[in-house]
């Protein structure tokens, strides 16, 4: 098929000292069956030999070196800006710790033809080590906890359930396809977040602009969960970003009256973290998680955004 007859898609992958994961990801991306896509790797100031190794292995891939760790949001913005300037019709942000199905882009394009009002599209995401087990198939907002719950998480995909298109609250940022026209209308990712909640903010802004978020079940990704956070959701910097950025997301997307019940739930949640921190029965790891979460809350009110404090990312034993 003539490349000019199908939309051009830029696949943007952020790398930060993740050579092995990124190479695995790029190898799967190279196998995508779609005639008009480009690979753009954005390196966030890696200090290993990632860039040299990737250049040697994938000489056709365009690499932009930021020279510093700009985070997920600002790092991707560099790639998005380049892609839009080159005439991309879509940008596809893909975590470097993922493997993709070869038909992923065709699944997106066909879905968008069926639902043209969808401006942001996402994949059904599986656990990498358990390839039939679902990690993400949409989300549900839990008001009493002021948090989202991944739908389908832990379920085995039996090819009968989880096969319908969905219009979720947001699309998971580890595999998110966005129309260029949406970016031009609402702007790029908010860099204040640095990491986490930025895609939720993006989706809410798109919905306010009249676009829908569409989960495409035939677009499949396998995620290593999570190379960005050694220790997963138990990692102190995961807790820091999650707590701080949840407050920023509420501030940016709800009026004060709309947000009152959310703030009440966050307040109750914060009190629980304070009790955990001062509870003599809490282990050192539990205390560290609570300390990082509370630091995130504090920094939100102090208007400290961007990267987390060094002690949160590299905690030392007290």
From TrEMBL:
<dbReference type="InterPro" id="IPR029044">
    <property type="entry name" value="Nucleotide-diphossugar_trans"/>
</dbReference>
<feature type="domain" description="Glycosyltransferase 2-like">
    <location>
        <begin position="11"/>
        <end position="140"/>
    </location>
</feature>
<dbReference type="InterPro" id="IPR001173">
    <property type="entry name" value="Glyco_trans_2-like"/>
</dbReference>
<dbReference type="Pfam" id="PF00535">
    <property type="entry name" value="Glycos_transf_2"/>
</dbReference>
<keyword id="KW-0328">Glycosyltransferase</keyword>
<dbReference type="GO" id="GO:0016757">
    <property type="term" value="F:glycosyltransferase activity"/>
</dbReference>
<keyword id="KW-0808">Transferase</keyword>
<comment type="similarity">
    <text>Belongs to the glycosyltransferase 2 family.</text>
</comment>
<comment type="pathway">
    <text>Cell wall biogenesis; cell wall polysaccharide biosynthesis.</text>
</comment>
<protein>
    <submittedName>
        <fullName>Glycosyltransferase family 2 protein</fullName>
    </submittedName>
</protein>
């Amino acid at each position: 098929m003539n490349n000019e007859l199908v939309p051009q898609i830029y696949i943007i992958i952020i790398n930060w000292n993740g050579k092995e994961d990124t190479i695995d990801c790029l190898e799967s991306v190279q196998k995508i069956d779609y005639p008009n896509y480009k690979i753009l790797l954005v390196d966030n100031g890696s200090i290993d030999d990632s860039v040299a190794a990737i250049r040697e292995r994938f000489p056709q891939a365009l690499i932009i070196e930021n020279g510093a760790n700009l985070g997920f949001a600002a790092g991707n913005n560099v790639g998005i800006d380049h892609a839009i300037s080159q005439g991309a019709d879509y940008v596809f942000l893909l975590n470097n710790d993922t493997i993709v199905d070869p038909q992923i882009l065709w699944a997106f394009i066909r879905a968008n033809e069926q639902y043209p009002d969808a401006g942001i599209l996402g994949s059904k995401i599986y656990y990498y080590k358990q390839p039939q087990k679902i990690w993400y198939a949409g989300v549900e907002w839990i008001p009493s906890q002021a948090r989202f719950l991944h739908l389908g998480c832990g379920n085995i995909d039996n090819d009968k359930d989880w096969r319908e298109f969905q219009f979720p609250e947001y699309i998971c940022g580890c595999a998110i396809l966005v129309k260029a026209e949406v970016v031009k209308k609402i702007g790029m990712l908010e860099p204040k977040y640095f990491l986490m909640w930025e895609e939720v903010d993006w989706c809410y802004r798109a919905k306010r602009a009249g676009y829908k978020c569409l989960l495409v079940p035939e677009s499949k990704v396998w995620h290593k969960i999570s190379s960005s956070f050694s220790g997963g959701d138990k990692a102190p910097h995961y807790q820091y970003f999650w707590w701080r950025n949840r407050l920023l997301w509420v501030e940016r997307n709800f009026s004060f009256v709309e947000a009152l019940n959310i703030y009440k739930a966050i307040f109750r949640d914060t009190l629980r973290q304070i009790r955990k921190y001062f509870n003599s029965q809490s282990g050192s790891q539990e205390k560290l998680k609570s300390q990082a979460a509370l630091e995130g809350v504090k920094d939100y009110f102090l208007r400290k955004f961007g990267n987390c404090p060094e002690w949160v990312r590299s905690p030392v034993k007290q």
